Amino acid sequence: MRERIGELLSSAARERLSATLDILCTLADSPGEPLASPSAFNDRDGGPSGHEPDRINRVLSLIEARFAEPLRLSELCAAASLSERSLARYFAQHLGESVGQYMTRVRIGHACRMLSDTSLPVSVIATRSGFANVSNFNRQFKTVKETTPAAYRRKFVEAGVPDDEDVAQLTERSPSLQSKRERVGPEDEEHG
């Protein structure tokens, strides 16, 4: 392919296109192996045995499904059948970050989508993204995105007004502002 570099840099458009298509055909015909497959680690001593990706995937699926809920490390460890120390090590090895950093990144990602796609108040977005209070959400958001949630939203509002179809209900409040009766529920309070 290196011999085709001159053709790729040619001033003639047809020659560049022809070289590009030839290279793509060569790549399509050549055998390949996914770089992130467990077999990519088989030659290393002490590398993963092949079961770790399944374990990590179970934890990632659990985090993705329940990011808005409080998740305990013990629940994640149980899903992966690993100790806390092993889970932390596998996260660092496979994802390059801690469990907490990954969960924060997932939550911030969902918050970004809601900030850009809805006109929900930041406090409601914080709650729906799994943050217990708005100040923690603002601090974490600014650390990850290097801007405030309001400034992040303004970037999208300037480009186009967000949809109003997902408007917060007037009764929806942050958990820290809810009374015990609202958190427990009137029917649960009678039985408890």
Automatic annotation (TrEMBL):
Alphabetical keyword list: DNA-binding, Transcription, Transcription regulation
Classification via SMART domains: HTH_ARAC
UniProt keyword Nucleotide-binding, yes or no: no
Residues in coiled coil: none
PROSITE patterns xref list: HTH_ARAC_FAMILY_1, HTH_ARAC_FAMILY_2
PANTHER family in the record: ARAC-FAMILY TRANSCRIPTIONAL REGULATOR, TRANSCRIPTIONAL REGULATOR MTLR
A GO term for molecular function: DNA-binding transcription factor activity
Domain of life: Bacteria
Region (Disordered): 163-192
Cross-referenced Gene3D superfamilies: Homeodomain-like (1.10.10.60)
Domain HTH araC/xylS-type stretches: 57-155
Protein name: Transcriptional regulator, AraC family
